[in-house]
Amino acid sequence: MNAALVIVLVVVALIVIVVGAFVAMYNKFARQRNTIEESWRQIDVELQRRHDLIGNLVEVVKAAARFEQRTLTGVIEARGQAVAARGAGPQRQGQVEQRLNGALSNFFAVAEQYPDLKANRDFHHLQEQMVESEDRIAAGRRFYNGNVRAYNTRFDTFPSSMVANMGNFQKKEYYEVDDPRVRAAPSLRGAFDSLNEPVTPTPPMGAPALQQTPPTEPVQAQPQVPPAQPPENQPPAR
């Protein structure tokens, strides 16, 4: 076989290998990017559902109790900012959702002081829906950030970094909460357990107040002393 032909075949084979590797890496970038965008759309759907639930929750609280206006206003404003930030990207959305989480935590802490809410079925139904929504958002955030981490790592490795620059791929933003106090979504489970505790009945006016009897301590048995015996050789008393 001609040596020139061998060289040409080797060069063609190398070109095919390089092009094939470039296409494979490019397609992997494209698949990862599409997976990240799809996972973010799932989070966005859950955020929209959460914002709707918060709006309904606010209306129920307004109708059921004279709720503290400052706390209620804080939730309304934080929700408005979160709704307005949709489409601004995961980083901006994470910032406003962090404020909303803080407002919700304060909201449910104050709500424990209103016993009339425990009898409201709509409030409890929304409470359960909120718990489910928070769990879905937390799971979606973990899935999204895992995909972003794998995708962004390829920008720091060779030859993937070269393919990323040639293909005009860009790193993706994480969706995370920086404040450790609200890093986890606020859980509503058990938020109103204190309202379901048994209440001590109040005695009618004029009746003596009931006094609690202190617990009695167990009585220890005293050792029995045998009766004294008369000394020996002594006549009995007359």
Summarize the structure.
This protein is mainly alpha-helical and 238 residues long.
Structure description:
With 238 residues, the chain is mainly α. The protein has a domain at 45-193. 59% of the residues lie in helices and 0% in strands. The protein is built from five helices and no strands. It has helices at 3-64, 69-84, 90-111, 121-153, 160-166. α1 (3-64) packs antiparallel against α2 and α2 (69-84) packs antiparallel against α3. The radius of gyration is 36 Å and the shape is rod-shaped. Keywords: Membrane, Transmembrane, Transmembrane helix. InterPro entries: LemA-like_dom_sf, MamQ_LemA. Residues 192-238 are annotated as: Disordered. This is LemA family protein. It is found in: Membrane.
Computed Rg: 36 Å
N-to-C CA distance: 151 Å
- With helices defined by DSSP (H or I, 4 residues minimum), what is the helix count? 5
Would you tell me the structural class of the helices and strands? Answer: mainly alpha
Topology, number of strands: 0
Helix content: 55-70%
Strand content: under 5%
Describe the main β-sheet briefly.
none
The succession of helices and strands, N to C, reads HHHHH
Low-confidence stretches: 181-238
Give me the oligomer status: single chain
Shape: rod-shaped
- Average pLDDT: 78
Region (Disordered): 192-238
Transmembrane segments: 6-26
Family: Belongs to the LemA family.
InterPro entries: LemA-like_dom_sf, MamQ_LemA
